[in-house]
Specification:
The chain is an alpha/beta fold. It is 29% helix and 23% strand.
């Protein structure tokens, strides 16, 4: 029996050509999945595509049917608009696995907070409209089958060793959860962060907001992915933002590692989300547990 993938569009409009749509379906079909688009995936009811109600219906319908894998087609903006309307008990009872990235950071952290369930981060259905980078494809195959993942030789800003459930994702989207009922319990967590296209001062401002909100007093450690095109006008390198990051985390009493290949680049890895992670700056290793078949 083939496993079903349902592709939904809970964030920005899924602007794809006919060829790209076919490529996406073929990619997953070659892996043995039965793959279909959600009913409202290509509706253009609002500037974000389908209406919130239509997006919500697609999301809830897929979880109710216990679809093997529910996957967002793209990020952008919009998934946070759905959070207050979701019946989380339906999602909690479902056996479905969810995969998303970028704007879906808001949903995935809320999903973990409300159900305690893991998901997959770093992979969107739209990543397969052209052949994806081998690392991304191979890590997706590994993670969706329940595999764990490790990274060696990673540098650090602050020394230490920590373990805990990994949450977080895109910094911009994660920051918007502060003060809402959709932020996970932060105590003892490993916080993963990345971003794209934000000026260095905005990165500093968002991290300062997290600091002032007590986030870094609660988490056990921080893992930094890629911060791509986070530059001032006229700059051609991302080095300045990494200087900002180094300065910001200076003196922290928790381990802070950076350089994880996770972010808005084609050469990224797909990761488990909401599973136990271990980080050790002496051994320069990060290990993330796989997702149980029971989810």
């Amino acid at each position: 029996m083939k496993k079903e993938i349902k592709i939904i569009a809970p964030a920005s409009y899924a602007l794809l050509t006919t060829v790209q749509k076919k490529n996406i379906i073929k990619f997953f079909q070659k892996k043995g999945y039965t793959t279909t688009w959600a009913k409202n995936a290509f509706n253009k009811t609002t500037y974000l595509g389908a209406s919130d109600k239509e997006k919500l219906n697609d999301l809830i319908s897929a979880f109710k049917k216990n679809t093997f894998l529910i996957m967002a087609v793209r990020g952008g903006y919009g998934s946070s608009r759905l959070l207050s309307q979701i019946d989380w008990e339906i999602l909690k009872k479902s056996t479905s696995l969810f995969a998303g990235f970028s704007d879906l950071t808001a949903f995935q952290n809320a999903y973990y907070a409300k159900t305690g369930k893991p998901s997959i981060t770093g992979f969107l259905a739209g990543d397969t409209k052209q052949k994806p980078d081998p690392a991304l494809e191979e890590s997706f195959d590994n993670i969706v089958s329940g595999g764990s993942i490790s990274f060696n030789g990673l540098p650090h800003f602050c020394k230490g060793k920590a373990s805990g459930t990994m949450i977080g994702g895109n910094l911009t989207c994660f920051e918007t959860l502060i003060g809402t009922p959709f932020m996970p319990n932060l105590k003892g967590k490993i916080l993963l962060l990345e971003d794209v296209g934000e000026a260095p001062y905005r990165i500093d401002r968002m991290l300062t907001h997290l600091k002032n909100a007590g986030v870094f007093d609660k988490v056990a450690g921080v893992i930094l992915g890629d911060f791509i095109n986070c530059r001032n006008t006229g700059e051609t390198s991302d080095q300045y933002v990494y200087d900002i990051l180094k300065n910001f985390f200076k003196g922290f009493k928790i381990p802070v590692m950076y350089g994880l290949p996770y972010g808005h680049t084609p050469q990224r890895f797909c990761l488990p989300f909401g599973t136990k992670a271990m980080m050790d700056t002496t051994k320069k290793i990060i290990h993330i547990d796989g997702i149980s078949n029971k989810h």
